[in-house]
Design a protein that fits this description.
The protein is α/β, with parallel strands linked by helices. The protein contains 17 helices and 8 strands. The chain has a single domain (4-374), classed as TIM Barrel (Alpha-Beta Barrel), CATH 3.20.20. It starts with a helix and ends in a 9-residue tail after the last helix. The relative contact order is 0.14.
């Protein structure tokens, strides 16, 4: 039987696993995903790490060692995440070599507390990349207004960057231009650009979640059944349309004389990465955000449930570049109905930073509680 996950690669799309953690490494599951399902990379974030620490005992021995060495919770958190991503990068290293640095990356995110501080984000990204000490490590930097200069600076220094928490097409264009500018700086300085890797992580399902919430409120207030019907027809249309329009912008930016000059010097495109691709609404097909966004030079990061679902019943076809007119029309219809789409995507980025910051703080509290339990001392939560 064919594996739909592996078939995605035939259409130019790479599958990365959106749940790097120590249990995955210790059990050998990450290696199996690479060998059996053709997974070509992986990502983590503060929410993933917090859940892994809270739900698994595999970190306990290392936590005990760190606590006995006098490391506080922040230092322990740093050491654990560095180790997870280093080991994951080692699993992916053969992929990195085989694909000549196209795939095989493991991503680690800068602290979300720094999302609105350019200098601190830059320093943290530099420090993390140095600490990871792997050519196939990738640093995640939020695509906030303050994050963009840090992205360009880090890329110009040869740091692989995964720009995260992207929701709006305008924001995505800024990110792509930052990548191109960084490569131009390196080229002008006589530095190599053929091994600089970057992906632009465009979040998908959260767009439908928030837009659908707006639509639900509008339906309640609609005066007629006809008006309610028109609004219901817009449910679940925003996220895929938004991603398709972003990909159209990608195709525009990574073509033409400006890009060709860099490509002739060995530059690789900054691929669109579809993140948040688990289906939040049970009324929607559980693999919709995979099936509807299949196209060349893209990455889809899948959580475990979506990996299992797509392996079982995913349908593979070239879909990303189909019906672009329909995508633009869907966004126009939403705007005409009264939804300010830019306001939606701006709100989602702010909420995304808040969510990751909350998860980071929760991870620190979980580490504190575990250390206290392991050392058998009273625990007082730290805010």
């Amino acid at each position: 039987m064919t594996n739909p996950l592996r078939e995605l690669n035939e259409y130019g799309q790479s599958v990365w696993y959106d749940n790097l953690n120590l249990a995955l490494l210790v059990s050998g599951e990450l290696q199996r995903l690479v060998e059996d399902d053709g997974v070509l990379g992986g990502t983590s974030n503060p929410t993933i790490f917090e859940k892994a620490i809270a739900s698994s005992e595999v970190y306990d021995q290392r936590l005990t060692e760190l606590a006995e060495a006098g490391h506080d919770r922040s230092r322990a958190c740093h050491d654990l995440t560095i180790a997870d991503v280093q080991q994951s990068a080692d699993v992916f290293r053969p992929v990195y070599e085989r694909t000549e640095a196209r795939d095989g990356y493991a991503s680690l995110e800068v602290s979300p507390e720094l999302a609105y501080d350019t200098a601190a984000t830059t320093t943290e990204a530099q420090r993390l990349f140095l600490a990871l000490d792997r050519p196939n490590a990738m640093i995640k930097i939020p695509g906030t207004a303050e994050g963009l200069p840090a992205v360009e600076q880090c890329l110009s220094e040869g740091i692989n960057v995964n720009i995260t928490l992207l929701f709006g097409v305008e924001n995505y264009e800024q990110v792509a231009l930052a990548y191109i500018s960084a490569l131009e700086k390196r080229l002008a300085a006589g530095q190599a650009i053929d091994r600089i890797a970057s992906v632009a992580s465009f979040f998908v399902s959260r767009v439908d979640t928030l837009v659908d919430e707006h639509l639900a409120r509008m339906i309640e207030m609609a005066a007629t059944e006809s008006a309610r019907g028109l609004l219901r027809a817009l449910y679940g249309k925003a996220a895929v349309a938004n991603a398709k329009i972003a990909y159209a912008k990608y195709s525009e930016l990574f073509s033409g004389p400006r890009w060709q000059r860099l490509a002739d010097a060995g530059a690789r495109v900054q691929r669109c990465l579809w993140a948040s691709t688990s289906t939040k609404n049970p009324a929607y097909r559980d693999v919709i955000y995979v099936e509807e966004l299949i196209g060349p030079d893209t990455v889809n990061t899948l959580p475990h449930a979506t990996v299992d679902a797509f392996r079982d019943h995913g349908r593979v076809a070239s879909t990303l570049e189909s019906d672009l007119d329909g995508a633009f029309n869907a966004i126009r219809r939403l705007e005409a109905a009264g939804i300010d789409f830019k306001a939606v995507t701006d709100e989602l980025q702010v909420k995304g930073v808040e969510l990751f910051t909350d998860s980071y703080h929760q991870a620190l509290n979980t580490i504190s509680a575990k250390i206290d339990a392991l050392l058998k001392r009273p625990h007082a939560p730290v805010t």
